[in-house]
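Retry 2 of 3 after timeout on previous attempt. Resubmitting structure tokens to design endpoint.
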């Protein structure tokens, strides 16, 4: 794919496929230039019929190496927050808005530093996210951070204004969206980290409360 080509993963997404087929197809995605430097595609994982689907930004260094989402420090913190919020971890599915690791190199060039994906990359990868939503059919979708929120609600989305409130999500039939901060924001907090964590848990409790009664 040339740099001047339109970024778009649509040709790589099989119509009507289940998660297993989508995962296999995503491994060969070249819908944007990020695939060139990433180790591999990092697709979503979890309950294939999850009631809650959580969307992060993109895989980090550890996720890129292992091929699984949320296996680094932010993932461990998210797992704790999900449990503290009263959500069933076994009934969740986690993924990212962008499936390849975007990074820059520093120093000797060996250390890979996270670089936020742009709107072109979000748009290119959105067909995969929409396919996951259709396959899982969650009741509640949680946007973890501003990038995930923009992928789901558009570039005008602001997590600081819209977090912790159930919002409509036209791309997921019948589901509601609850936005919150990315768990990495808790890890980056220099002060009042417990308060920042408590805010994340509070937002996830809103997501738990938005589930339909059993």
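Retry 2 succeeded. Sequence:
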């Amino acid at each position: 794919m040339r740099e001047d080509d339109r970024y778009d993963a649509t040709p790589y997404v099989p119509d009507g496929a289940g998660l297993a087929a989508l995962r296999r197809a995503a491994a060969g995605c070249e819908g944007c230039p990020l695939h060139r430097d990433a180790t591999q595609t990092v697709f979503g994982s979890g309950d294939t019929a999850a009631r809650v689907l959580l969307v992060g930004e993109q895989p980090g260094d550890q996720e890129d190496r292992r091929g699984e989402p949320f296996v680094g420090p932010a993932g461990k913190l998210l797992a704790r927050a999900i449990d503290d919020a009263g959500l069933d971890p076994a009934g969740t599915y986690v993924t990212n808005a962008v499936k390849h690791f975007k990074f820059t190199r520093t120093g000797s060039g060996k250390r890979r530093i996270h670089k936020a994906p742009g709107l072109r990359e979000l748009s290119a990868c959105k067909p995969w996210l929409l396919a996951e939503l259709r396959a899982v059919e969650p009741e509640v979708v949680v946007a973890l951070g501003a990038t995930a929120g923009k992928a789901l609600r558009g570039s005008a989305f602001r997590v600081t204004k819209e977090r912790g409130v159930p919002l409509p999500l036209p791309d997921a039939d019948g589901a509601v969206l609850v936005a919150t901060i990315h768990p990495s924001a808790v890890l980056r907090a220099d002060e009042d980290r417990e308060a920042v964590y408590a805010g994340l848990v509070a937002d996830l409790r809103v997501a738990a409360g938005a589930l339909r009664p059993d």
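Attempt log closed. Residues 119-136 form the longest helix (18 residues).
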